[in-house]
What we know:
- By secondary structure, this protein is α/β, with parallel strands linked by helices.
- The protein has helices at about 15-35, 85-90, 95-105, 115-120, 135-145, 165-180, 185-200, 220-230, 235-245, 250-260, 265-280, 285-290, 300-310, 315-320; strands spanning about 5-10, 40-45, 55, 60, 75-80, 110, 130, 150, 155-160, 160-165, 210, 210-215.
- It has 14 helices and twelve strands.
- A six-stranded mixed β-sheet has the order 2-1-5-6-10-9, sandwiched between helices. Strands 3-4 form a two-stranded antiparallel sheet. Strands 7-8 form a two-stranded parallel sheet.
Amino acid sequence: MALRHVTLYGCTPTLSLGLGITQDIWALASLVQERVLGQGISVELFTLDGEPLASFSGMQMPAQGGVDSLPDTDLVILHALWGDPAPILERQLALLPQLRRWHENGVPILALTTASFLLAEAGLLDDRACTTHWHQHQAFAERYPQVDFRKERFITASGELYCVAGMNAALEVIVHLLDRMSCTQVAKAIEEMFLMDFRREYSSEFIAVGGQTYHQDESILQVQQWLEIHFASHITLQMLANKTNMSVRTFKRRFKEATGEAPMQFLQQLRLEQGKDMLRYSQKKVSEIAWALGYEDPGHFNRLFKRHFAATPARWRKNQP
């Protein structure tokens, strides 16, 4: 099935980088999808009042309309906020009910860096894992104590809500969503045109986070970001090592040195985190959740969950408010 419509939404001022690169990405994605599937992608930009979206440096992009004219859509991408988020959020109150409606209808929403403030302001990130751009870590944590804020993470994916710490991570998510919602050929075209090239100009914002250097191993960082959105796939150490062109032994050592964790331990934590999210917000059976997380044996998931959270998945779910 072809991806039909993508809604871009922005608050002035925003970042020129996100404003320009998303336009290029979706223009190319539409061309490739039309060639492969016979149907392009309609991409429309909206703002609060229908006025052009402007970056802090003066770049402008015309909008198709305001909050009151938002169409039905398959995917929403929220552009980053620039500057103090508090006054921007005060002006965006009319957007919040629409964010909640999109989420209730199962529409995936990707928040580019500081746009995670919009999701949190709408109450969609309560008790959920979230990340944002390092420059706003303190402000985010203070404003939203009810959010499970993960400043060390570059991507969080929770119930079709995607938050990213920078544009490289955003490109990873977009490729993932295109592969899922359009087709592999479109996803591959975007990956080869933008993501590979973007990595050659790796930004320090993905390395120095909140004044603390987590690690500077670009190859391991790319694997971490891949795992954060592909955790449910069948994954082996050999597969991960191949992604970095390392032997399994070297990959395991580098991953442990960079993150302090073994690769499969990191993957297990991602799966268990998603398991808690699904237990809290879905009506799926525990066995269905286990399979959705990539566990072939639901009993194995039960044992891991109990070991980490001192309760079986069923008991943990029952105790949630």
